[in-house]
Give the backbone structure.
Amino acid sequence: MVRDKIPDADLTIYYTDVRAFGKGFEEFYNRVKGENVNYRRRELDDPIKVEQKGAKAVVKAKGHPDIEADLVVLAAGLVPRNDSKEIARILNINQSADGFFLEAHPKLRPVDTFTDGIFLAGCCQSPKDVPDTVAQASGAASRATDILSKKKLEIEATIATVNEELCRGCGFCVEVCPYKAIELVEKDRFGHKVLVAEVNEALCKGCGSCAAACLNQAIGHLGFTDGQILSMIKVLGEK
Ligand code: SF4
Ligand code: SF4
């Protein structure tokens, strides 16, 4: 862009690695190199110093002559926003190890999150350029429209169910549910107020974490009760 606006400018780019991965980017990179732009490779461990000298800035990089520059542009790495952890907590979505929001599957569900109805687009998921952001945003809008355009939504069939007579309201299941699909509610039992777990059927994914955590064996899954599973194992054993 500088070459475009100031054709006779001296341009130097310090780099460690250049990855021109997008459509037409390699051609762009080669064209710029052919337009008298100096590319100077440096090791990542070698610091670049920018010092002031009068009205100019002096760029010092190991292995290269110093440059007196009118303008120095720093290309800093992208990191997630400071409040991304709080947003992830509010929306109940996951973050990858580097702090960006995590998609449900990098190839098959790249705009979905593990929370139904929440989709990702842009640099909240990872650093990306404008065309990739627009493409991803179009995909996310399309996925949201798919949900909103339906009169009825299908939910998981094998959801958790609570046997209220066995539930002692300890809340272990609430803590382990990754989808925030269980809460403790107050119910009247023989004239006394007691807390029991209640499953939100629209949110439950049938993962089984709650059933594993319940010490009272008060949670089962529709279509997957212990008796049904044991019957299936028995039939398999007979074959
Ligand atoms: S873990 Fe079991 S006993 Fe405890 S609240 Fe949940 S269903 Fe009830
Ligand atoms: S089966 Fe999984 S998603 Fe459903 S309530 Fe239990 S822990 Fe939550």
In short: Residues 187 and 193 are 6 Å apart (CA to CA). The chain has a mean pLDDT of 92. The pocket of iron/sulfur cluster (ligand 1) is lined by residues 162, 167-173, 197, 213-214, 216, 218-219 (CB under 6 Å). The longest strand covers residues 182-189.
